[in-house]
Amino acid sequence: VQLVESGGGLVQTGGSLRLSCAASGFIFSLWTMNWYRQAPGKERELVADISSDGTSTNYADSVKGRFTISRDNAKNTVYLQMNSLKPEDTAVYYCFRPWRNNWGQGTQVTVST
Q1: 38-60, pLDDT tens digit by residue?
Q2: What gap in Å lies between CA 83 and CA 15, rounded to an integer?
């Protein structure tokens, strides 16, 4: 199983980024997928999740209305569109497959003031 995140970077407050997570080694279309993040000195937190068919999504209150999780099962990829970014969104963002405890390596997002 591999989960490979990409798309992180440095962005100014109010900017946008789109993260991608390419999955392999399992039947992607059968699994709920999650995005987590971990800021320096803080615990890892769940940002968003999406059902296997993409029809159901959930978000942390802190990102609701700004972030959108989506997936393309034909490409075995889950996305996180992040808009109106704030400095407090600065963290390493991870892709996660629940119940099997599969994590990606993470991608750094830094939002400058």
Answers
A1: 999 999 999 999 999 999 999 99
A2: 6
